[in-house]
Amino acid sequence: MRLKLVCLHCYAMDPSDNMGALNHMVEAVALDNGPAPDSSTGQRDALPNDMLRIKQQMSNQCFEMAVQLQAGKSKRSCSTSEAERDLPDYVKEMERVKTINFNSTLALHRMQMWYAIGEKLKQNDSEAVALKAVNDRCMALCSQIKQLQQESRDLQDEITEIQKKRLEMKRLTHEKMKEMEELMSKKGHPETEKYKAVLEKGQANLEKYKKMIIMAQNVLRGILLALQSVPILSVTGIMFNTGMGQHILKNPLIVNGIIEKAALRPTDVVLEVGPGTGNMTVKLLEKAKKVVACELDCRLVAELQKRVQCTPMQTKLQILVGDVLKTDLPFFDVCVANLPYQISSPFVFKLLLHRPFFRCAVLMFQREFAMRLVAKPGDKLFCRLSINTQLLARVDHLMKVSGHSL
Fold this sequence. Notes:
This protein is α/β, with parallel strands linked by helices.
């Protein structure tokens, strides 16, 4: 799969999962306590007493309603400052409840999935045998992932130790060179030439050692990037919905390149469509003032919330759960999106018609769609999409992304 990254710069113009969700249903059943008693002389005698009892009950109810109305008036008479003071606590409590709900939904979905797999494995048909083989393969891959991640952490520790040793040796070398320079500065010292030769040799060895350290660090960083390119979803066990066009950008170099091309400012509000597990979101939160992420899959929303939970970035992230094509887009300065490919065309038109204007959009498309966006008059791929897009925006091709980065 070959992908292309495209940037849209809007011209200034005059204004002109449901998966995992739980549905609760409550039914009210009216109970019949038996047939109504027949009219009799005893009932006619008890009628005045019943009327008095009903009157007393109505009086009590009226009194209770008056008390409740008085209490409501007293509550409404409370100061606005107290209500405003309690509002942040209510918002925090609501966010906490939403997080608990997402986590519960995710846990229930996983339990249902594993229960269904377990029931299927109990059968003795060909599908059960194939599913068992896939399950064994997944378990082996998870073990390999954990082993690779442990090796990655060990390599990171080794890099840290190498850096510490390098700094210590650099400090000692500079101290030694300073002493030798002081000795050389003294005129008439008998061993000046000897120290000078040793100093030149030490400087040459130091430069050679620096080059070796830099080369070793580059090799180890490449190994770490290869090991850390395994997506988080391999560990969490979430399966992608290919029907929704879900794909996660794993290569950190591509993520950094996209953010660099976006030229974010500390005051920018960024709209991200399809954040997935947050590989790009956490980088955007480091650069921008606020990130508004729009995600349809509740499972990925829960994973994204877990990733930023209890961190300073939590307050800078706003998540919109739903279909971006059916959602009213908020105000934003820059749009960065790793789009599901089947919504590429409608999302581009929705973006171009959005008001107020945004500064730019950095979007990743399939190669064929991107080539139509940047096609010029006379090209074979020049079409209605090219005309409408280039009429409202300047389209630039930024970089190519290989299928191995997804």
